[in-house]
Amino acid sequence: MAYRDFQHFLDVLQQKGELKRIGEPVSPYLEITEIADRVMKVGGPALLFENVVGPPHRMGTPDPTSAVMNHRSIHPASVPVGERRYGMPVAINTMGSRRRMSLALSCEDFEEHADRLTELLKPEFPKGPVEALKRLPALFTEVKTVPPKTVSRGLCQEVVMRGDEVDLTKLPILTCWPEDGGPFVTLPLVFTHDPETGKRNVGMYRVQLFDRNTCGMHWQMHKTGMRQMEAAGAQGQRRFEVCVVLGGDPAYTFSAISPLPPGIDEMLFAGFLRRENVRLVPAKTVDIKVPADAEIVLEGYVDPSERRLEGPFGDHTGYYSLAGDFPVFHVTCVTMRERPIYPATIVGVPPMEDGWMGKAVERIFLPLIKLTVPEIVDMNLPVEACFHNVAYVSIRKKYPGHAYKVMNAVWGLGQLAFTKYVLVFDEDCDVQNRDEVLFRLGANCDPARDVLASRGPVDQLDHASLGEGFGGKLGFDCTHKWPGENGFAREYPKLIRMADDVKARVDALWPKLGL
Length: 515
What we know:
The chain is α+β, with helices and mostly antiparallel strands and about 525 residues long. The protein has two domains: about 5-345, Pnp Oxidase, Chain A (Roll); about 375-485, 3-Layer(aba) Sandwich (UbiD C-terminal domain-like). It has twelve helices and 25 strands. The protein has helices at about 5-15, 30-40, 100-105, 110-120, 130-145, 225-235, 250-255, 265-275, 355-370, 400-410, 435-445, 500-515; strands at about 20, 45-50, 55, 85, 90, 150, 160, 185, 190-195, 200-205, 205-210, 215, 240-245, 280, 290, 295-310, 315, 320, 325-335, 340-345, 375-380, 390-395, 420-425, 450-455, 470-475. The strands form six sheets. Strands 7, 8, 9, 10, 11, 12, 13, 16 and 19 form a nine-stranded antiparallel beta sheet that branches. A five-stranded mixed beta sheet has the order 21-22-23-25-24, with helices on both faces. The protein has a four-stranded mixed beta sheet with strand order 1-2-5-20, with helices on one face. The two termini are about 45 Å apart.
């Protein structure tokens, strides 16, 4: 079932006991973060803050001891002098569990989408015309519901503010952590188009509020948005058009963070996930189409030659990413539905909500990884390692040195290129089980023989790397060694396992043992 809009998704969460409404006055300056962080750390529910009250946004870090920040005794019906009641609720942690992440993708469990991709990617031809006819309706259904459709009207344009009417400080944008450079839009879908091919890109890049109509656009060096803007600048363009979208079917949000193959449109993939076309409406002031069911849309442009200091920001690495020069987003128009809800998330020391978003990416895109590296059996990108730092990979080992081939393949696959540590195991190792991973690492890996050191691109936010966006990598061969492999000359012992017939007999006896 595709969601009509973001608020429909919230209604479903409430019906299923997954949403907690908060009526107490809570500030977007730090307080929402502290509440949400405590809830995320214990696997708590989605939160809807219905009474967002706090100091007017400051474009630097406010002094928490100032009078305007001291609002511990606010009554829900009152707003002290110097404070603001923001005009819309804030929803957060809406995808912060396996169940809610699955509900966000309109399914009982998000692995269902991996199964759908596996079926579509089957390389073999149907075995005869009967099987072909059986597969045809399913394939036709998948293709028919995928392409986005253009419509003339949408919820996202019930209210339109242009020019001097634009005032982003009225939005309940979160200041997440004490040393953040200001308020940040943390769940934005950033729509741009390649100036050479016209191809749409939808990415998720944090947006820092500078003032009522300008923001910092955090396009990192490896990101598609940055490359498109640089191409526009090379053509002499001074206004590279951008739309920042908040809300809509949560499948859009997932599509924006997905490592799609080149040429695959994020809105097309969202249609695949929701099994229904995405409806797009032309923006009011720029030549970009945006989801008709969005809560809020910021329209504007970036000047490719303009930079401004952005950050610091408490990031998904668990550390503050440092301030740096990034492009400036000039907002010329804001559209929204009449009673919007502001969607947000926070990142920081894991586990957080983004952990489940990343885990869904890992599971759903595993079939695509296997298509390129078919010897891979399973993969685990641990949440605690921020996903891009560590990968556990199990393989069907076929020849000496096979683990090294897989390490290098992982370092050559899209965003997996940022992985710093790749640990490769035999196919019978459950890489989702950390205890088993550590057992195999300790038992089968000799640091003097089974480690591969390399260098390459890393996440630009990696503060420990050799340089910005470039650093070292290590691969660990944790597989059973074959004769002659990398100088191994001894007989390799067998893993201890109980005989299957004994296990079966004890299984039958177990209920009688009282254990």
